[in-house]
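Hypothesis: this fold can be encoded by more than one sequence.
Test: take the structure tokens below, design a sequence, compare later.
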């Protein structure tokens, strides 16, 4: 496998797709007026899906939400007792998220492993947004002796269509033992966890599109792909509204202009959102797929 670049589009409606860990408020860039989703949140979606071992082949997630909270060293000892994982190489071989995203432990040596897949630090919404502030109340008291519930004030995102940019480094991938199947699972996990996340702040999200650019070598890169999809400077409340204004022309121009360094492009569609006709301006070798359940199917 050579170098890969991912452009993933998902939207969120009346949600908090990525709250700030200190305030709980949706991450927001006041200058650009765009909502943000961090790389940590994207990786958490993938880890949460894989943590349930949906493929039934023994996938283990090192940074698991199911384990007791503690240090990375505690987790390493836990896995050592369960699976006889004595070295960092053993952990890498067993834990799919370590192969994909890396690990940092507290050991004095061999304490770091770089991930083969990385996402942009903060991934913005394509559209400008205004966060809405609201309140909610509880009828349950927090402590015995209190007679009233509580009132909480928070903000949420009415609608945002996010563009997430990711990269696969094949040199690191070879060192980590990343397989083609690992990357397939990663794409399925991201797509389906976005669609199925069943929490109060994440339950109105939809995976719309994933574009995978496969380069001919290990070093090529097309600059500014993360900025190549645009809409008009207005606020939206539905995907049907923003779909009419989505402009892929700059993205197609960049890819077509660099066709000499591209092997092919794989396009994964939500068929209720996009069709092959939407990409007829992309003049490179391309294939179309859908992600249904735990399977990737060519269209």
């Amino acid at each position: 496998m050579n170098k890969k670049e991912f452009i993933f589009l998902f939207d969120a409606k009346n949600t908090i797709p990525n709250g700030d860990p200190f305030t709980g408020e949706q991450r927001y860039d006041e200058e650009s007026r765009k909502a943000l989703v961090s790389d940590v949140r994207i990786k958490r979606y993938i880890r949460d899906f894989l943590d349930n071992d949906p493929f039934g082949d023994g996938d283990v997630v090192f940074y698991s939400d199911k384990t007791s909270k503690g240090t990375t060293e505690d987790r390493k000892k836990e896995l050592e007792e369960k699976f006889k994982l004595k070295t960092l190489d053993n952990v890498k071989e067993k834990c799919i998220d370590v192969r994909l995203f890396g690990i940092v432990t507290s050991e004095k040596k061999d304490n770091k492993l770089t991930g083969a897949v990385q996402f942009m630090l903060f991934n913005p919404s394509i559209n400008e947004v205004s966060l809405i502030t609201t309140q909610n109340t509880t009828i349950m008291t927090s402590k015995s002796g209190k007679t009233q519930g509580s009132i909480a004030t928070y903000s949420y995102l009415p609608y945002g269509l996010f563009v997430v940019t990711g990269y696969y480094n094949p040199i690191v991938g070879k060192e980590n033992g990343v397989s083609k199947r690992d990357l397939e699972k990663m794409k399925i996990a991201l797509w389906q966890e976005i669609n199925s996340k069943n929490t109060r702040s994440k339950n109105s999200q939809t995976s719309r599109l994933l574009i995978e650019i496969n380069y001919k070598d290990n070093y090529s890169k097309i600059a500014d792909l993360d900025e190549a999809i645009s809409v008009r400077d207005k606020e939206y409340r539905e995907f049907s509204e923003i779909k009419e204004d989505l402009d892929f022309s700059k993205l197609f121009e960049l890819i077509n202009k660099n066709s000499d360094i591209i092997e092919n492009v794989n396009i994964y569609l939500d068929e209720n959102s996009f069709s092959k006709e939407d990409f007829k301006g992309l003049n490179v070798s391309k294939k179309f797929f859908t992600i249904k359940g735990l399977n990737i199917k060519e269209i």
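The radius of gyration is 21 Å. Residues 4-60+119-128+158-298 form one domain.
Hypothesis status: open.
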